[in-house]
Amino acid sequence: MLAREMKELIVKGKVYDLGQPYYPGMPHHPNHPPFAFSLTKKHGDVMYPNQVSSANDLFATGGHTGTHLDALGHISKNGKLFGNRQASKIQSYIGGVKEVGIDATPPVIRRGILLDVARALKKNVLPSAFPIGPKELETTVAEEGVTFKAGDVVLIRTGWARYWKDPKRFVANEKGAPGVNLEGAKWLARYKMAFTGSDTTAYEKTPAHDLPVHAFLLPKMGIQLIEMLNLEEIARDRVYEFLFVALPLKIIGGTASPIRPVAIS
Length: 265
Prior knowledge:
The protein is an alpha+beta fold. The protein is 20% helix and 25% strand.
């Protein structure tokens, strides 16, 4: 991205933290491990000269736990990954997924667009299992007056982040969560976005037993997904265009990486 384009996006210089906090008991999809944390040393356990001590910690998590960015190698369709790669030939338990692992994703510094679907539909939070299709997206675009450019990061707000402190409700295994349906994903993909994300566990409407949106966007279109964002503050300020920055960890062969994304307006 050119420096001139970045300057055009930054008007006030306000930074919005779009990541959710990590802590034991935080919401996580049942297919992925929970976040675990403990201090391994408390202050006073080990003393240095002059009454100096240090605290240390240990944490464990999954690539898809918390706010994260999916690698292109996360989903296959008929055994094929993005670029018609045969998954069986480039994956291993130790080496991960070659060529399309998260280490192949560079730092994300791009124009961002917020589509506040909940607000456009006059809702604080969209209902459980609510499908976001072309009609809802067109209504939101008209309400906000935004336009798309190739390579954008398009973020979808459902309002679901308000349930973050209620893990059972947020994960919504029984009733499902709102999200983009396959028709909506195809509508968005026409604009050649590079990344898209939302404030729910799965981005797409759930239940989604065969992950139709994931299977379309990742292995077919090469559009990576960001999940479990916190879009409440930026939505309150009605900031719909901004500079989006996210830095995935360089996990060789990883299928995703935790990120702490920010929007700068």
